[in-house]
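Case 334 in the screening queue. Each case pairs one protein sequence with one candidate compound; here the compound is fe (ii) ion. For every case the pipeline is the same: read the inputs, emit a complex structure as tokens, and attach any notable structural observations.

Predict complex for case 334.
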Amino acid sequence: MYAQMVKTDAARVRSLDEMEPQERAFQERIDAGQKIEPKEWMPEGYRKTLVRQISQHAHSEIVGQLPEGNWITRAPTLERKAILLAKVQDEAGHGLYLYCAAETLGISRDQMYEQLHSGKAKYSSIFNYPTLTWADIGAIGWLVDGAAIMNQVPLQRCSYGPYARAMVRICKEESFHQRQGYDALMRMVKGTPAQKAMVQDALNRWWWPSLMMFGPSDDASVHSAQSMAWKIKQNSNDELRQKFVDQTVPQAKYLGLTIPDPDLKWNEEKGGHDFGEPDWEEFFNVIAGNGPCNAERLDARKKAWNDGAWFRDGLTAHAEKAADRRAAAKIAAE
Ligand SMILES: [Fe+2]
Ligand SMILES: [Fe+2]
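Case 334 output:
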């Protein structure tokens, strides 16, 4: 599958000279750093790319609540419980901003949910891994939210206005998520040897899936070149992964932990770390639905949707009755 993706990337980004006037004007606005707003003309490919990316991002926020929500009742102290509860609620809010941003592009919330529930839409592969211990919750904040920040900060400058503005609010909250995770781990590594071992075990399991969050190398990514030209994407996957590794290595050292990568070493010449290659076969396998928790996550989302049916039905019935009453009152007044 990896090799297949490399091959399909043959699609080339067209130059301004090759574009029709309308598309050229659109591209020139993007090149000039202007934002594109919902009602404005846009190429169909731009719209589709954004719908796919924003809805997948929204799904990731919502599904991302599940591995952590699982620990709210088991948080070790009242303070940690309040912090985790606030974080998980933030993720719900992120999902809602993003579903709203996607809706401005002409897709409905129901359609997006349908795509998630049927397996047509994807979400971040990281949320298909289980949270086995309390240290996993700290590791998720530190590494998963940390990687999310790396990905999301440049999206604040994305060319599509509603997406860029949603990201500004989201990034502020992500910083708190990263911080609370690191803080929880810091407390644990100062605890008993068993607690410290639990943190090291969490790092061992979350390190590689976190690196995979940036996606495969751009040479292998079907959508990268066009997304860069449209300023939907500003940095290559490898660039962001490198930044993440360079930021995280000293943080791991401060915690007294070992990153589970024998190839990891400082490269003086490039001013960054060399590191090993994630297992991309595992990545594609998890994306394809075969990760440890894919079925469980989707079942939880479908159950939430089905359990809410009575409420949606109630709202619709109330709206219909209210409309009937307004119509009757109008007739009576005439
Ligand atoms: Fe989030
Ligand atoms: Fe977060």
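Case 334 observations:
- The pocket of fe (ii) ion (ligand 2) is lined by residues 91, 145, 148, 174, 177 (CB under 6 Å).
- The chain has 14 helices and two strands.
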